[in-house]
Amino acid sequence: MYSKQWAVRAALAGVGACLVSTTLAVPAIAEPSAESAMTAARTAAKTVIALVRGDNIETPKHVDGDRVRDDGGVPAQLLNHYYGRSGRDVVIDWSFFAEDQGFMEFARSLPVDRTEHAYSAVIDKNGADMVLALNNFAVTRTSQNCYVVRDYYDFDANSRFAALKQDALDGKAKEFTIRASGCEL
User: Fold this and answer.
1) 94, 116, 136, 175: most buried, per Cβ within 10 A?
2) Residue 126 contacts by C-beta under 8 Å, 6 or more apart in sequence?
3) Could you write out the three-class secondary structure of the chain?
């Protein structure tokens, strides 16, 4: 748990999102998109307000991996990683999930039990990016306001994505684990 003094300094320095997103694992050093910057600024402001009120700030579970930015191109970044053949885990920015109302409604309905629960994204509810990026994945509610997402980026040989599965079998691509972790304020 971080001290309140450190958290206020971090939030005021513009990195308050580190307290409530996966950027804890991979600090944002490169230039963020305008949307990501606004999300980080809103999160930093909420963090400062919560700290001034004396609220307890929960911290997300630490997850490691190559960063996948929530910049409107998450599915493309994951597909590029797949064909990059490193097989290393990736961490999607928590904002990708936090801004999806359908997903968050489901996540908030889960008990705090550290058990993985299956979630299936639907285009009408979650949009194409969530379906193309993850489709079916696991969600765990780790505390009152914090969640962990885990998925394995692979394709079913008996689906319309059979050619992508075959690419992995032929060594042209490599499957990997996707993780994300974050908290609501």
Assistant:
1) 94
2) 100, 102, 103
3) CCCHHHHHHHHHCCCHHHHCCHHHCCCCCCCCCHHHHHHHHHHHHHHHHHHHHCCCCCCCCCCCCEEECCCCCHHHHHHHHHHHCCCCCEEECCHHHHCCHHHHHHHHHCCCCCCCEEEECCHHHHCHHHHHHCCEEEEEECCCCEEEEEEEECCCCCCCCHHHHHHHHCCCCCCEEEEEEEECC
| pTM reported for the whole predicted model | 0.72
> Cβ atoms within 10 A of the Cβ of 32, count?
19
Strand order of the sheet with strand 146-153?
66-68, 90-92, 176-183, 146-153, 136-141, 117-120
